[in-house]
Description:
Elements: E1 3-5, E2 16-19, H1 24-36, E3 40-44, H2 58-70, E4 72-73, E5 78-80, E6 83-85, E7 90-96, E8 104-105, E9 111-114, E10 117-120, H3 123-134, H4 153-165, H5 174-180, H6 192-198, E11 211-215, E12 232-236, H7 240-254, E13 257-262, E14 265-270, H8 274-287, E15 297-301, E16 305-311, H9 332-341, H10 350-360, E17 367-371, E18 374-380, H11 397-409, H12 414-420, H13 426-438, E19 442-445, E20 452-455
Parallel strand pairs: 1-6, 2-3, 11-15
Antiparallel strand pairs: 3-7, 4-8, 5-7, 6-7, 9-10, 11-12, 13-14, 15-16, 16-18, 17-18, 19-20
Helix pairs in contact: 1-2, 7-8, 8-10, 10-11
Amino acid sequence: MAVQLPLKNQKPGPRLAFLSEAEPEALAECLVAFANGDGGLIVLGLDENGRPSETIWEEEAEGALRAAAALCRPPVTSRWQPVETAQGKTFVGVQVNRSPELHSLEDGRVFIRSGSENRLLSGGEIGQLAASKTAADFEADHIAGATADDFDQNVLAEYLAKREARGASPVSSLPALLFEIGAIDAEGRPTVAGILLFGKNPRAFLPQSGVVFVKFPGPEPRSESGEAGYGRREEVNGPLARVIERTWNIIWEEMHRGAVVNSLQREELTEYPPFAVREALVNAVAHRDYRLRGRRIEVRMYSDRMEVISPGDLPGYITVDNIVEEHFSRNPRLVNGLFQWGYIEELGLGIDRMIEEMVQSGHPPPQFKATPYSFTVLLANARERASVPRWTRSMNERQARALTYVRENGSITNREYQRLCPDVSAETLRLDLADLVERSILLKIGSKKGTYYILK
């Protein structure tokens, strides 16, 4: 069955690559990059803008794929996937699945898919990726004692309905689908992913699953009397979709809410931007290390902040410094399940929007803290300065970060902007600032090396 590809809207990204020629080395680089990450689709015969380049026949593509496979260590498993465009044209596609092994080219170079490009990993990053590969299949392990009777049929029906609403074909065989998505193994036994997504009582098999919510009345983990304690504590259990919704409902109950009137329209204000909270919660549920027993995800609400604490370190080669630009899933089956459910809109874009939502609401950007055994997202609720105007909503995440810097420091230079966004080209950053000047948001002062920018 062919994949539908609308050329006008589709662009290369974390799981899609275009190659204008059937060139073995470029194809091998994409094979390695996708296999080391979350998998993806390679379309031959399209340039980087999605325009047809030259006709590539199946025989030519087959020869290039054989040559490319010979350049990969170990070989990367792939399959042919016809790709149809909205104009009715068919191109040769190569579908690559995420691999439990670490792959490199024959010369030892290791690539990962980063945005719309294949990025070469450093020695330290290769070590991190290799370590995560050894534990990547925990979610695919079958659970001793679990049977198909431990699946909640109502939850399964809801998942199938949501999946079909997103454009998936109706299911002809439920066991075949459950095996395809990793919910059961080849012998029909429920896996870790299957019980977490569809189980009647996941905690019976995985005591570390679920969320603990705690509300503290002040900025410290103490009760109103000043002693160690809390104002409210809730344990949230069940399949992941229920955990997300029930936890969100509790947070919503505890959030302060108000309203302002702008241009005769009432606008509701919440203590935290809803998207930022839900993104932090969904990420914790999808990406935590479920191998770690004895600790569940924690959501802690204080008077001045909210902390979402996820057991386990950052997966793969992800660090606090590159978390905005890079994407890697520790639990790809859970991520795919939550994507089909609608909790994840588009892979790799949630962190950017979380930052934008916080800044646009007048809050500091989220803080990310990583340790060997936990990862914390901290959302501060103090609007220390006036909220960012509505017209900033057309900014990209980098520009929002630059504006926050200007508001906190009074001005910004090109060099300071480059330090804020070290992985972005100097020319792109220059165009960002020029755009803000043209829109009368920033004022350019000085020239050449003495140039700096202030709020206009």
